[in-house]
Amino acid sequence: MNRVTKLLGIQYPVVQGAMQEVATAELAAAVSNGGGLGIIAAGGKTGEEVRVEIKKAHELTDKPFAVNLMLMDPNTPDVVKVVIEEKVPIVTTGAGTPKNYMTDLKGAGIKVVPVVPNVKIAKKMEAMGCDAVIAEGMEGGGHIGTLTSQVLWPQIADAISIPLIAAGGVADGRGVVNAFIAGAEGVQCGTIFSIAKESPVGDNWRDAVINATDSSTVVVGATIRDASRAIINKKTDQLLDLEAQKVSRDEFNTSMNVGLRNAVRKDNAETGVLFSGEISGLITESLPAAKIVKQLVDEAQDIIDNKKIELA
Question: pLDDT-derived band of residue 117, with 50, 70 and 90 as boundaries?
């Protein structure tokens, strides 16, 4: 047991990414039942819609799970109330600062774990009273920052005293070991869980990830300071064209959100936005979430136990 597993009440230091439209109660419960921490994504949902997902997750697992707050979402105040009422033990946060909600969340005994893109914000989150941080490198899928995991993780590990969970480019045991060597005590994985058997995505999304190579993703939205990584297709080409036309951020995000819904709800791999990380090229099959958790841990332990490296 390390600080992350103890803090979150989980068996293995593996956290599922909070993927809008994808991180449902079913996926979160499957990850939690497998010994990791499953997360329900609240972005784009009303408070009552989130309540339905929380209640469903409680029916599917007796293990801890979290709700992710997308803080720029106008529904966030209502979602926070629901999270407290439904006694969710952990929240992760993104797209803003949790400052305005810290008193209520901490007063309810909820662990607060924000996603951070750099050292400055990580230190602010620690000073604010957050329990841990998730440091996500730009290799990850979905919304990303500008720093790579390789440089981000160790610098944040050196700058804070609360636990670090590493995200961005982890899909096998090698990634887990790399994260722990860099100073993390847990990992968050998105892309590999996005195509888990319990994920709501369809076969076309799964096939797109499984057939991806190291160069199959692209960053869109960087010029409007809302960068996201997805698998290259007709929709990402369209989004890049919108950037070139210098459309407003709202117009760009509206188009991207329509694409995300097309991807998840219609399984359209060409007009949909398939948020995926650069690690897609390593993923070769869709597995049950619990098996993914165990495989990540077992592979990492095998490397630690058996890898012999000679530097000279």
Answer: very high
pLDDT at 306 over 90: no
pTM of the model: 0.91
Residue type for 59, please? E
Count of all residues that appear for the chain in the document:
312
pLDDT of res. 1: 76
Q: How far is CA 199 from CA 21, 27, 160, 210, in A?
A: 10, 5, 34, 14
How confident is the model over 106-119, as a mean pLDDT?
Answer: 95
Q: Please, which residues bridge with residue 67 across strands?
A: 40, 91
3-state SS, one letter per residue, for the chain: CCHHHHHHCCCCCEEECCCCCCCCHHHHHHHHHCCCEEEEECCCCCHHHHHHHHHHHHHHCCCCEEEEEECCCCCHHHHHHHHHHCCCCEEEEECCCCHHHHHHHHHCCCEEEEEECCHHHHHHHHHHCCCCEEEECCCCCEECCCCCHHHHHHHHHHHCCCCEEEECCCCCHHHHHHHHHCCCCEEEECHHHHCCCCCCCCHHHHHHHHCCCCCCEEEECHHHCCCEEEECCHHHHHHHHHHHCCCCHHHHHHHHHHHHHHHHHCCCCCCCCCECCHHHHHCCCCCCHHHHHHHHHHHHHHHHHHCCCCCC
For residue 266, CA distances in Å to 196, 200, 210 come to 18, 11, 19
Strand partners of residue 90: 66, 111
Average pLDDT over residues 79-92: 96
How many beta carbons lie within 10 A of that of residue 171, not counting itself?
23
Q: How far apart are CA 95 and CA 290, in angstroms?
A: 28
